[in-house]
Design goal:
globular, 81% helix, 269 residues, mainly alpha
């Protein structure tokens, strides 16, 4: 009986779950890539190249790159300390603060824009004071940066928090036992070890800022970013007019991600 049971178990085919995972994941990857390939096949390359010299497209691309870079820097300067605190703090407020960080990720972009208008709009106290000082926070590059930072900075905080938590705490304890204070330990031990994850978060924040549309439309609109320019081209000309601008945005975003990912994979080179 035991021999028959063993033979039966041996004859039972085993499932290669790694292959199953690849097939299921491949379907999702195909879903990601097929629309992009279709987009590039929808417009002659000559038309795309011709639109690259359009002043509106050039201005929109410049605004997107500048504002996304500023937003990524702001998210890093303020997000890293918050991520470190979340990763190392053991207070009861940690979950509440983390929920506040994640909230912009789940809000619809247009709602994010409305929320920001209640603080930075021309009729809000802060917004009105900024207008009186000659520095309006709407329909300006400042408004674009405010909108992008609101929706993109959580990527830095959440990703950096995970990177900090992955650092072996015994290394930090060893540094502290040698007389190094917390700041020195964080600068010389924690940050170098967490650097790849931090740079990945900065990359995600930059990419999210480049693609931000809803909150930017509500808060700024001018100067136009690439996503806003795509919308304007779609409304004024139609889908055929939006295709070339969308392709240019995809190319810029992919190029930026390749550069940033190269830096992230070699953080100290």
């Amino acid at each position: 009986m035991a021999t028959r049971s063993t033979e039966s178990e041996t004859a039972t085919p085993t499932i290669d779950w790694l292959t199953v995972a690849l097939v299921l994941g491949g379907v999702l990857c195909l879903y990601y890539l097929a629309p992009l390939v279709s987009l590039f096949l929808s417009v002659p390359i000559g038309e795309v190249i011709g639109r690259m010299g359009d002043p509106m497209v050039v201005n929109a691309a410049t605004t997107s790159l500048l504002s996304a870079s500023i937003s990524a820097v702001i998210a890093t300067v303020f997000g890293l300390p918050l991520a470190y605190w979340l990763a190392r703090s053991e207070t009861r407020w940690t979950n509440a603060v983390l929920a506040a960080v994640i909230l912009p990720l789940v809000l619809p972009p247009t709602v994010s824009g409305i929320v920001l208008l209640t603080v930075f709009g021309p009729n809000a106290p802060i917004g009105a004071a900024a207008v009186d000082a000659g520095f309006p926070l709407t329909r300006s590059i400042a408004g674009v940066v405010l909108a992008q930072t609101f929706v993109a900075s959580p990527f830095v905080v959440v990703t950096a928090k995970a990177a900090f938590e992955s650092v072996d705490r015994t290394l930090e304890h060893a540094s502290r036992s040698l007389g190094k204070n917390r700041w020195t330990t964080a600068r010389r031990v924690t940050l170098p070890l967490a650097a790849p994850g931090i740079l990945a978060g900065v990359t995600l924040a930059f990419a999210r800022a480049m693609g931000e549309f809803g909150a930017t439309m509500m808060l700024a609109y001018y100067p136009r970013t690439m996503p806003v320019q795509i919308w304007v081209s779609f409304v004024s000309v139609g889908l055929d007019g939006a295709y070339p601008v969308a392709i240019i945005l995809v190319v810029i975003a992919v190029a930026a991600l390749v550069i940033l990912n190269t830096i992230a994979s070699n953080p100290w080179d």
